[in-house]
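sorry for the late reply, my laptop died twice this morning and i had to redo everyting from scratch. anyway the thing you sent over, i finally got around to it. pasting the sequence first so we're on the same page, its 174 residues, then the predicted structure underneath. double check i copied it right bc i was rushing
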Amino acid sequence: MHVTHYVDEMNSPLGTLTIVATDKGVCHIHFGELTKCTASLKAWLKKQGRKGEVVRCKETLKPICDQLEDYFAGKRNTFDVSLDLCGTEFQKKVWNTLKDIEYGKTKSYKEIAKEIGAPKAVRAIGGANNKNPIPIIIPCHRVIGSNGNMVGYGGGLEKKELLLSLEGAIEKIS
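ok and here's the structure:
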């Protein structure tokens, strides 16, 4: 599939975020500067079977960056952006379920597994979370261990803690 991927960076309380979108919507958010994630971005695009150019375009990504800035400023608790999800059907099912976790709330991997009708797929839920290409907007940071502990996050537990703290959910976690 030949697709133009628009890319830009933004500063956030988590550090620099690199945002990638197509004409269909946001497809990737990377923790780090574009210069440091270019190789992993190219590898991700190749793995997804996406061909085409990567174009730096602040204007195209401005609405997405504005919503993320509002989120970090505490002015927004939901996102209204189109997504261009790339993943297996199982991963997409998990990610779409994650989008339903309310701001300031958390759910366990086990609860997510039950919700998608696969109660024994707890590890697979963790794997799908780990592959989430659009963190923050698809709030995988809101998924915790069954014992209430904060476990695993692709961006690192300190980023997960910051996001949950921003949402007022951290005091609910042991």
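The first helix runs from residue 34 to 47.
thats about all i looked at so far, will dig more tmrw
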